[in-house]
Amino acid sequence: MKSKQRLQERYIKEIAPKIAQEFGIKNPMSYPKVVKVVLNMGVGQAVKNKEILETLKKDLAAITGQLPSVRRANVSIASFGIRAGMPVGLAVTLRGDRMYAFLDRLFSIVLPRLRDFRGAPLKNFDQSGNYTLGMSEQTIFPELEGKTSTVHGLEIVIVTNTKDKEKSKRFLEELGMPFEKS
Fold first, then answer.
1. Containing H/E element for 170?
2. What's phi and psi for 65, nearest 5 deg?
3. Which of 37, 49, 141 shows the shortest CA–CA distance to 91?
4. Would residue 156 count as lying in a domain?
5. pLDDT tens per residue, the chain (182 residues)?
6. If both were cysteines, with which of 29, 42, 72, 151 could 137 make a disulfide (CB 3.0 to 4.6 Å apart)?
7. Which CATH number characterizes residue 64's domain?
8. Kind plus residue range of the DSSP H or E element containing 63
9. At what angle do helices 165-175 and 16-23 cross, to 10 degrees?
10. For the chain, what is the domain count?
């Protein structure tokens, strides 16, 4: 039997029952949960330098424990110097144990390490209760400390099944997401 991640165990034993009671949810199948975490990285200058693309792939793989898929341009845009089929981004979708391990590291190690971090902005929720967090550089992850030469932006999308901003906010707070104080 596989061992559960620390955050996953806490979710099952403490968080899910607490949130269910708070929102009056009786069916365990409709408890709020994180469905997946998607990491996206645009690779603009990789069009001209293939080594950058490979470096960023290794960085994203080190952060997530999973190889990223290369996203290619669907159409040509002359003003950006992009032709159809050129690599324009990298994406990783995490589910299950890897997802919980990543969220645990993000909430307890990475976000507190950010300089002048006053909490994650509350305005980043979409209408479906999903949360998007943008980071200006991927080097804040401990897996990359001193191992990468390129600094690149990163987008983290936490997809929940709540379909409601307030429930999602409360749920992510219980998981450990450090939101800004309003």
1. helix 165-175
2. 80, 20
3. 37
4. yes
5. 355 678 888 888 999 899 989 989 898 888 899 999 999 988 877 667 788 888 888 888 888 889 999 888 888 888 877 788 888 889 999 999 899 999 998 888 888 887 777 888 889 999 888 999 988 877 777 777 766 667 778 899 999 998 888 889 999 999 988 888 76
6. 151
7. 3.30.1440.10
8. helix 50-64
9. 150
10. 1
**Angle in degrees, 0-180, between the axes of helices 96-105 and 50-64, rounded to the nearest 10:** 90
Q: What is the total residue count of the chain?
A: 182
Q: What gap in Å lies between CA 86 and CA 82, rounded to an integer?
A: 7
- Element spanning 99, H or E: helix 96-105
Q: Does the residue 182 lie in any domain?
A: no
175: amino acid identity, one letter: L
Take residue 136 and report the two structure tokens written for it.
């200006």
Query: Does the model's pTM come out above 0.70?
Result: yes
Cα–Cα distance, 102 to 64 (Å, whole number): 7
